[in-house]
Structures are given as structure tokens and as C-alpha cells.
From TrEMBL:
Coiled coil: none annotated. The keyword Ubl conjugation does not apply. This is ZP domain-containing protein. Keywords: Signal. Residues 44-318 form the ZP domain. InterPro entries: ZP_dom (IPR001507). Residues 1-19 form the signal peptide. It comes from Asbolus verrucosus. PANTHER family: CYPHER, ISOFORM B.
Amino acid sequence: MSLFRSCAIYFIVIAITSAESAFPPSLRYPLPVSINKMIDANLTCDLRSFNVTITLQYPFKGVLFAKDFSHECNTPGTLSNSISINLPTSGCGIRLSSRLNEKGQNQMLYSVVLVAQQDRHLRQIADQEKYLECIVEDEVFSIKSPSMADVLKSELTEKRGKNQRIGRMKKDDPESDVGEELNEVLSASRAWMEITPEEDNPGSANTLKVGEAAILTVKSTLPAGIGWKVVDCVAHDGLGDSSQKLLDDDGCPIDELLLPSPEMGPIQPISLMKHQEAMAKFAAFKFPDRDRLHLSCYLELCRGFCPEVDCGDRNETSENRFGRTLSKGAQGEVLDRLKVFNSVEVLAPAIDDLRKTEKSQLSVLTSIGANEYRIESYSYLTV
């Protein structure tokens, strides 16, 4: 029994010694790391830009960038304790989401993950990531459409004139009343896009996995006399280098497996306005070299309502799908197109694991091939 224990102890000592000798001292006993911490962040944002000024403990000589966009969305340090970066909200991984504030009101916010790389060219363990949120004023998403404003002004003026003729309105300045009502209606108009998991999970609301059920929602609050629909949707990598068309100019899907036509929800009347949402359920996907998926669509605004389009016959032209050409001032006339966009992080753990397995198998096969070559060479030399 003592001989068995002695052998076991011997082999254990040999294994530990071999493991220690397999790694250099720098890995077995890592040196302490000096981290230039981010101690403060000042944020401002509007519809088109996300501006950040980061304050660090020490002068910063590295580079600050949006995660996944180190070469395209960055700014170099200048040996100052503070560094600023300006990012477009339509790319660089900027995400728009909504939540209820303390008063129970809907609150919109942009978010991004910034990376402070300590060296301008090298990634190190001392590099830091920081998740930032910037609350966006609700007025930022108001719709600015001159053509829609002209239609509403004409309708309000006509309505005021009729009311005056039948004695309902007796104010001296009807034009002033029309202007006030028009401003009220336009300032209340909103449109934006959200991308969320189908299953409500607060812990992963900002992240999807490839193949996971997700929902694209376009939300709008518009004047009662204005119709709308979702058209011309595109998926891109955040820079426009890689893109995939999802809906055509009529709102018809290019490939229903990628994104079907959004379904219009019920109308919720709000005084002179109406709130409505269009939703499309899809399986999350991503571009190979990015973990951020960006989607952009256009809201087509119409007088009264937007005509329905038959997407079934792909041989018809865009004009023929409507069945007729709409004249100016007719119901269904297209007034304007407004762009809405958003992004979401999409991970592919199954794909990444498969690639690691394939790489490992390839490495093993390469090693086996090399050994066979050595054996054959040795045999040849022996002969």
C-alpha cells in the first residue's frame, strides 16, 4: 500500500512540475496591471448624433471607440485626461429603446458600449468597456414634413370655414386659430422603430441570438387624416459596407424568411391624433463580421390612407400594383417618406462553437498529416 502511495505522490509531483514548466513565469505569476479608469461621462444626444466626453484618471494616449467599430467609429487620445467622441445614431451600434420613468411616462433613450483601448494599436487586459445611456427628449422624434403640414393646414382651414358658415365659430381671427391647432398637431406627431425579443426577458432585452424570435415594431402617432405604411427596409452592418434589402419600395418582402410584411395594429384615437403600430416577427440574423444588426425602414405618409398593395404577383410593376395612378389631392396620395432606424446586438454562440470545433479538427488533421510526412521521410532515409 505504501508503494502505491509513493508512486501516486511521485506522479503528482511530476505533473505539477510539468504544468509549471509549460507556462512562462509571466503567465503563472501575472504582473500587476495599471488601469487608467474612466471616472466620468458627459452625454448629449439628439435625433442624429450621440456625443460623449469621457474623463479618465490620467492622460489618455490610446483610442476610444464604439464596441465592434474600432476602425470606423473612433477618436484617438491626445494625452489629455478627457476625450470626446461624436457618433451617428444611425450606425456605430447605437440602440434606441423605451422604458417607463418614475412618473409612469414613456421615456426614449439611446445606448452604446464604448471601449477605452489604452494603447493606440494593441488590445490589453487593461482596456475598459463602459455601457452608456442618453435620455432623448420626446420632441426629438416629432415629424417634420412640409407636405404633410400643407395638407393638414388646408384641411383645418376648410373645416374652420365650414364651421364659421354654420355659426359654430365666431372668433375674429380664424387663421390664428388654424395656426395654433396646426402647431399642436404637428408637435404631437411621432415615429420611431424598436427591435425586441419576442419573449419578455429584462436581463437580455438588448441582446438576441441567431435564430431567436424577434419583433420589429414601427410606432407612430399621426394626425387623424394621415395614413401610413412601412416600406423600403434594409439590414446593414452599421456602416453601409454590407447590406441586405428586406422590404421593397411598396412594402413587399424580398424574402419572407428574413422579414415578412409588417402587420398594422389597431388604431388608438387620441384627440385629433391616432397612435398605431406595425409589427413583423422574424428570426434574428447577423452579418458574419459584426455582432450588431442595424435595420432601417421608411414610413410612407399618405393622404387619408395608403392603398393596399398586392405583393402576390411579383411580375407587376410598382405602378400597376396600385391599380391606378393617384392624382394630387386624391385620397391615398403619397405625401412624404420618413426614415426610422435602430440596432440590436445579435450573438451566434452555436455558430462560434461550430467554428471552434472545425478549427480544432483542422488542427488535428494538420498535425496527423505532418506526423505521417515525418514517418514517410524517415522510412525513405532508412531505406
